[in-house]
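Troubleshooting log. The previous structure file for this entry was overwritten by mistake, so regenerating from the original sequence record. Sequence copied from the archived sheet and checked twice against the printout by T.R.
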Amino acid sequence: MFEDILNPVDDNLLKLSKLLSEQVIGKNILINSKSSGFPDIKDVSVAIIGINEYRNSSFSSSKYEIDKFRIEFYSLFIGNWNFKIADLGDLPNGKEIEDSYFMVNKISIDLRKLNIIPIFIGGSQDLTSSIYKSFEKNNQWINITSVDNRFDFSKNEKLISGDSYMSSIIMHKPSYLFSYTNIGYQSYLNSQEEIDLIEKLFFDCYRLGDVLDNIKVTEPVFRESDIVTFDLKCLSAILTGNSKYSSPNGFDSRSICALSRYAGISDRVSVIGFFELFNFDLFHKLFAQILWYFIEGFSCRFGEYPLYTGEGFKKFTVQLSDRDLIFHQSQKSKRWWVEIVIKSYLDNKIKSNTLLSCTYEDYLNACNDKLPERWIKASKRL
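Regenerated output below.
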């Protein structure tokens, strides 16, 4: 395991928690501290790991003050949660950045083997590449969703940085990336070449304005995701206290918490990372609440993935002008899925069906003879 590598939480933070109510998070989670040692994580469901690896970031060379975040997070009241949460402390930077990449990869693998969701906080978004590679031996397609105002591509596939990590993921061989979705991109922060590449690869992307107008459209995306990362430069500069790295336009506090909750509710999300964090008092408070909403979402999971339609699901067949589409609605969560056909690479006559998360609006559009956009792109990728 990795318990000997992680730096424990400062005991002074535990002393501060003693002054608070018995119902706060700080008194109801397992904490790796000097006084109590590394906790028994056998029955833990989610685990927090702090990171301060910024060597491949254009964002900032200063360390994120994780303990200031912890003060805010520990003081929040727990929800109606019946599972264990652990704060495993902080991962020290390796001698070389590749050492940090290796340890993030290892922690992701080891915790998932224990059915624990790793929550990486801090560091730069190039660490997403290490998380992605931790799925390499799973022999399955991987879906990544990034909440970010940029696509983070680069012409140089050998370069890995917080601004170009997606290129290394796309060029990695063998490739097991099925889908990448960007939520919150801003057109003026991305080149037309990058936008064209997204279209060429049949990936999904949602402009900031469209998400703010209808944030519910993102829920099916998270439902399909294995890995979710947040680049918190996507927040409005008023929330980060940093106009150099943040945009005047960006997500507000309510929308970012809603997105984090959607990520938590997803039965499929098994790793999440919150990167590019700001040292600003208001931001520490906000980030504590963002993480609270992810855990709150996790407590509301419906257990509908892998999905088996039948009992508890209603089936709807929609006749379009050129095809039939079959939709399924869960009577438990009221969420929707649409069937999609997979053709064999070796023989086009061999077909099978799988399910794609969708919205009620997608069903209504199909009733009006309009194919869902995500269905079209997923079909082309398949």
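The longest helix spans residues 281-299. Archived copy saved in two places this time.
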